[in-house]
Amino acid sequence: MAKPKTQFVCQNCGTVHSRWAGKCEGCGEWNTIVEEDPMGGIGSGPGKVPKKGRAVTLTALSGETEEAPRIHTGISELDRATGGGFVRGSAVLIGGDPGIGKSTLLMQAAAALSRRGHRIIYVSGEEAVAQVRLRAQRLGAADTEVLLAAETNVEDILATVSEGKRPDLVIIDSIQTLWSDTADSAPGTVTQVRTGVQAMIRFAKQTGAAMVLVGHVTKEGQIAGPRVVEHMVDAVLYFEGDRGHHYRILRTVKNRFGPTDEIGVFEMSDKGLREVTNPSELFLGERNAKSPGAAVFAGMEGTRPVLVEVQALVAATSLGTPRRAVVGWDSSRLAMILAVLEAHCGVRLGQHDVYLNVAGGYRISEPAADMAIASALVSSLAGIALPADHVFFGEISLSGAVRPVSQTAQRLKEAEKLGFSGAMLPATSAELPKGSSARWTMIEDLPDLVSRIAGSVKKLGKQEEDD
């Protein structure tokens, strides 16, 4: 009799090993490899005889198409992040840190949809029904007809949601608590998570019900479990925020039915999450216009312009190796800006500590913030505030040139709407808004930017002497 085969799977990244080891070769984590039965779960069946397949109908690319039907929640920030609402028959994966507000957001969305006449089922694998009811009462959602269940078995959940009228939306909180009889492993393992998610996606595609899955995140901020889960679902959203601040950001990183890089901004209160329709005012609310080292960056998040303050502090150091502390931006990008400033502008920062912070805990991911960062650094080093009514944006290359960025008109319109009367932008920018009364300063390269900031310092000093 043949000896049954076993395999060892990393519970962090899903790498399959032929034998047990203390450290995973795929992700480098320790004590994450668990023995699993390859005959169960997804991908099983080496011993089964495959059935004969059936031919499917082939069609041409040309033909009539229709827009995917959506379920609008009425929460504009959530609808924006999902591309206009939940698509029927789709699967959405939402991840975030513990206690960030994922369950609160989904409860408010479920209540809003229920008030619109939709049939909503909320399945909790982490809390009892009584605990979910307490949250609903706090959020003012207890008067809705949202159907609750506390269950973790995949087969029981599918049998429950299949009874009666088809639900419009099913919320599973969370996928790490699911377990199936077809997989011989503990809940939360790679096999169980993959099995449960595929079963839920299959139900959504077959019935047309929208499926929202909540996922835990690792210490690096990525959704825990195999990365194949993110490929299986139709949309992946990350709920971000700092517990030290009241606002939360719902960021889209994948969406098959809409644009990516969209964000929805919420503010956490004792009554739940409140929408922030103008996030620029939120990020600029506590701005000190007379402080040196502060620059306002006009950025874009998908189709939404966002203005945020960038703060820099340059101080002389007594250490052999200066400190470089960055919050809200890429540290390697900061190192590049410092090198370009020293190589092409003669700005020596090798004997200074550099601290960079994006106000409000917001995170910038686009290179258009290069010119705002450089301006804040030079301003802090010179000890003079930048013009309070100006915004900055532009990408800096290694040669010191300032390159244009996309959606220039939207950035300038948002700045003018919020009361900014000037902007420093790349000289080769196109699509400038017409009929604007704002003052635009065209920057050729980084030395031009530094000379303008230094000129403003000399001009201000001369005005103070005259006074």
Describe the structure.
The structure is a single chain. By secondary structure, this protein is of the alpha/beta class. 27% of the residues lie in helices and 25% in strands. The protein contains eleven helices and 23 strands. The strands form five sheets. It has a nine-stranded mixed beta sheet with strand order 8-7-9-10-6-11-12-13-14. Strands 17-18-16-15-19-22-23 form a seven-stranded mixed beta sheet. It has a three-stranded antiparallel beta sheet with strand order 2-1-3, with no helix packed on it. Helix 9 (370-382) packs parallel to helix 11 (446-466). 42% of the residues are buried.
What's this model, at a glance?
With 467 residues, this protein is an alpha/beta fold.
Q: Indicate the percent of residues in helices.
A: 25-40%
Strand line-up across the major sheet: 8-7-9-10-6-11-12-13-14
What's the Cα radius of gyration?
A: 27 Å
Look at the helices and sheets and give the structural class. alpha/beta
**Mean pLDDT over the residues:** 86
The separation of the N and C termini measures 99 Å
Poorly predicted runs of 5 or more residues:
41-47, 457-467
- Count of strand segments: 23
Shape: globular
Largest sheet: 9 strands, mixed
